[in-house]
Amino acid sequence: MSSYRVPRYFPTTVVGSYPKMPSAEDALRRRRKGEISEDEFREKIRDAIREVVADYLDAGIDIISDGEQSREDMVVYFAERLRGYAPGEWVRIFDNVYFRKPVIVGEVEWVEPMAVEDWEMAKEFSRGHPVKVILTGPYTMLEWSFDLHYRDRREAIVALAKAIRREVEEYIAKGADYVQIDEPALSTRPWREEAELAGEALEYIFRGLSAKRIVHICFGRIERILPYILDYPVDQFDLEFKNSNFRLLPYLKEYGFNKELGYGVVDVHSLQIETVEEIKEAIDKLMKLDIIGPEKVYVDPDCGLKRLPREVAREKLRNMVKAAKLARKEWGEE
Amino acid sequence: MVPELTVIWASPLGGYPRGRHVRYVMRDLDSASIEKHRAFIEIDRAQTLVIGAQLASGMKYVVDGMLDWHDIFRPFVESWRNVYLDGIIRYFDNNFFYRIPVFRGEPEPQRLVTPARVLAYRVLAEPAGLKVVIPGPLTMVKLGRNESELEDEELVMRVASALAMDVAGSARNGAALIQVDEPYLSDPDASKEDARLAVEALEVIRKSIGDARLSLAVYFDAPSPSVYEELLEAKADYLSLDLADAPGRALGLLEGKGCGGHSLVVGVINARHIYDDDYHTVKSMVEIVLKACPEITELGLTTTTWLDLIPLRFALRKTALLGAYAERLAAELGLEAEIPLTAVPKPYRV
Questions:
Q1: A22-330 CATH fold
Q2: What pLDDT is stored for residue B124 in this prediction?
Q3: Contacts of residue A221 in chain B, CB cutoff 8 Å?
Q4: What Å distances lie between residue A318 and A97, A128, A302, A314, B40, CA to CA?
Q5: Which of B26, B93, B189 sits opposite A188 (nearest CB)?
Q6: pTM
């Protein structure tokens, strides 16, 4: 358990990724070229995580992450560590930027801890703040891979869910308080059957878990899948709001949302730094709708901050924390 | 009812992925470490090979691969005044991102994108026809950002007018088919009004096609029934639908509403997966189409989307499957397969 006391109202958190620190960039580049050993790589990543955590703590974030410094990509990172995956060939992400889209070629199985070491490093530097476990979800893993083995989406997703569950157990054994599963692909296919498929996988991952169970979904038709996901076995939905100009808010009201909400109030695609007032207004906007109480609102960015320059990311977080503090004060928590 | 269908043919829906060499050339081009003309020679060589692969696979219409396009909107945005590029955003449900076109006024073409390509590749494409693919005006506006003073509806028509200039030049230079891509029409948010607007915009384009044929392509999913009803009003030679992404919904549309007298092009080869598509699944989809639309006399087979979402090796494999399946279907269903490469060459027309 973490020793830091998380505020009761409007705790602040992050979705996961943070801009790559120079030592992480260097480590990833040199590892790709085979220039450094795994030990040297880990040492450099450790430096990067130390810097990320320092930024978070400096900004005043309550529940932090490891900043995903050793992950070049949210799917490839795990695919490289699971049995049953093979490195794929080059597929474009945008412009002339490509990645090796992984291919499922056999039974997917967990082999050994995949990201636990990074999380432990972050904990070491966290001064008692809880460190959220952040893992890519099975639905997104499948959607953003090629599958030459299962050819049946449900079967593949269940296999991935089992592997991810096994990874989660590693964290739980080490005392993790918050486990977040990222499913950004879900909002791009807003159909009931898709939501049910992802829900079945989450059920498997989260069954009987003592930690806080969170699912992060962003950038898509969240309002369309909302009615189908409210029964997910999670404590918290972490959702993007700012980028879509808070259009999701009325739907929360309409569908009787009553779980905890990771409330995305910072746009991770914009270099413009939201002011404290702007973020506070966003919090007020939610609270005025009287959907959930302040103890259920976790203030955070829309998504991972990795695409922003470090200075911008840090400034956005600072303002977010200041706004949350103002809201807390207004609601009687000093 | 015995189908009157006589002809079946194949053609990939759109662009191809870059191979390693082209990726490197594009990278060098972006960093100004290669002369432009040298880069274009390399890209031209790769596009020629892609055309050759399509011909060898028996395609009726071939594309030039669009290997130098970063996304479907980019070459047009970069050639038009009053339209700019912004950040990247996800392209439908793909793990692929495009740069957002930002309209700050009426788009004014400063140069044309496709006519010169037609000149360059028309002869290489023979005996197949060269297909030109352009973004649909509705999709471009819906996926873009309108910062102009024009209403969205007006902007769609202005975009159609701008695209029509490209179409006119391409048709003049010998394009055999103009395909207008409106994937937005398969989006759950697309409305009947959107479809009506897309059809009106298509009409602007149609007036410029000369002797070329016109296809309206909707993909990534099946359109909703109300959207589909409007699409049946489109004055296009072909209506191109994605069957394999959501076969239940797509085939249900055809069974329920027919095809409105259009010749159909159906996406039966999944261009977002790398496994070999099952022939019998393809055949059963085609049989349902034939039963649902007994009046059609021409059926095109295509890929569910552009082939640039999978690696080049698999894109070429899918192209080969497309051709092979068209030929096999023709043999098994008693139809004529239209395979230009194996047809007796007609006397050359000067």
A1: TIM Barrel (3.20.20)
A2: 95
A3: 188-189
A4: 32, 19, 15, 6, 48
A5: B93
A6: 0.89
